[in-house]
Amino acid sequence: MKLGLQIPYFTYPDGPPALGAKLAEIAKTAEDAGFDSVWVMDHYFQIPPVGAAELDMLEAYTTLGFLAGHTSRVSLGTMVTGVTYRNPGILIKQVTTLDVLSGGRAWLGIGAAWFDREHEGLGVDFPPLKERFQRLEETLQIANQMWNPDDNGRYDGQHYQLAETLNVPAPLSQPRPRILIGGTGEKKTLRFVAKYADACNIMGMAGPAFVEQKLGVLRDHCEREGRNYDDIEKTVLTVMNPGPNGENTGQLIDQIKAFGEVGVQTVITSIGGVEKIAPLESIGRDVIPQIANL
What is the pTM of this model? Predict the structure, then answer.
């Protein structure tokens, strides 16, 4: 079992002047503690229920590039990019750049988007859900074409038309950066996972039984798509609170074991009080060694 760190909150006591140094410390401590990956949300405004929209929110790919420069091992990605936020060709160029400059550590985390307020606030189109899923599938197709060194030709979709999918330099990850799709929709999201992705991400806060049911749906889609279910990494997103002095780490181990019993391989978690650093250190000391062989 692997553990990933999600950083969804940037409003720390010393404010923006100290934010860069604090994020670097968080990421480096997580890496030293044994976390496998570090993730940031891709939003323009802070989201409910994390906090008010007026709280600090950093642009995701600038932040990941910064974190790449302060780490050397952990993989890096968004949890997750809404398909509406960027032109897909530009998005794939951004992920490719992150992969090259980080030494092959980038993920493409992507989903159908949901937070209408930030779209309206900054003047970004927010089409109906059906269209967002159409755009999501086209973006996944564009990603695979741009990451194919033998195909830099046209892409002609319903929503996106690219005259040439040139992408130089190519990513370092082989055969391409890994793709994670976030969401639990049974008809489209999990089908897209089976067809295009290397990993799924399911909301772990709903509990292991919910996750197990969604993984069963994913397995069925894999059978229909001719995809090996075991080739897809199963991840969940949850929240952990180890306590100021690590007093809750036993409960966290039980929580992680419960996910492992239903087939989860990676737990990605945000951590209360992560800016205090001690919670990360206690998880590295008391939790990660205990779950390594699950």
Answer: 0.97
Encoding tokens for residue 147?
């990451």
Structural domain that includes position 36: 2-291
pLDDT in tens, 143-175: 999 999 999 999 999 999 999 999 999 999 999
Rama region for 49: left / alpha / beta (φ>0; ψ in -120 to 50; rest): alpha
pLDDT single digits (tens) 194-249: 999 999 999 999 999 999 999 999 999 999 999 999 999 999 999 999 988 788 99
Number of domains present in the structure of the chain: 1
What is the separation of C-alpha 293 from the centre of its chain, rounded to a whole number of angstroms?
Answer: 23
C-alpha distance from residue 181 to each of 4, 22, 202, 214 (Å): 16, 29, 9, 13
For residue 224, give the CATH number of its domain: 3.20.20.30
Query: Per-residue b/e over 45-58, b at no fewer than 16 CB within 10 Å?
Result: bbbeeebeeeeebb
